[in-house]
Protein: Inositol-1-monophosphatase
Organism: Dactylosporangium matsuzakiense
Amino acid sequence: MDQSAELLALAVSVARAAGDLATRMRADGVAAVATKSTATDVVTAADRAVEQLVRDRLREARPGDVVFGEEYGGGQERAAVRWILDPIDGTVNYLYDIPVYAVSLAAEVDGVVVAGVVINAATGREWTATLGGGAYCGDRRLRVSGETDLGQALVGTGFGYAAGRRLHQARVLTGLIGHIRDIRRIGAASIDLCLVAEGALDAYYEKGLNPWDHSAGGLVAAEAGALVTGLDGNPPGVDMVIAAPPALHAQLHDLLSKLDASGGP
Ligand code: IPD
């Protein structure tokens, strides 16, 4: 087995255990235990417990690796492999018991994401990819949508938690909505990216994402044929993530650029 396949196998087994813990804790009832960047950016006991479980399992299996996670940070030391983890992507869905929340886990070697898994813990649906090895949902090989006209495209997006950023994102949406088929706000960026990979969304964009939101799903989308970038030749990052088949990507990129989508707070 090559290294990325090995890392993926470990990621899948750890993410499954993590997803099981999330759903068990959900069944026992969930409450926000704290807020983070703003009063609407919640964290639950499950976000923390799931991150701890993943950290413990990875340390046991590969003690030399480091983990960069949404809840406990870390991962800045040099190591052969850096894991990038969102223990529960879609925390607000989780809080409200909307069955769309994921464990998102990626493995990075020398700064390049080589393996990623996203598991919708509520449904058990699993998306995986290795660099150069394709993207899968279970055993099914994934391919992005064949749509080439932005005017016919179903586009996913999301919003940050700070009021100023949301206002800017709403203005961008006002400029975009007349030029696309419709918009979807799924509530978990990693799942949005996997939906692009399987063609259930034609495209996706969002400003303000962190690596734990987009690393695993970004690889899944890219391996299914999407271009996954920022604006103006930049890599995907906090200023912008756009994921779409190449023909749609060019149109969406130009419109988002015109609308100054990466500007604002
Ligand atoms: C959030 C979700 C949401 C996106 C936000 C993210 P979290 O992650 O992915 O869809 O719009 O930007 O912060 O807080 O649920 O892990």
Observations:
- The domain at 150-258 is CATH 3.40.190.80 (D-Maltodextrin-Binding Protein; domain 2).
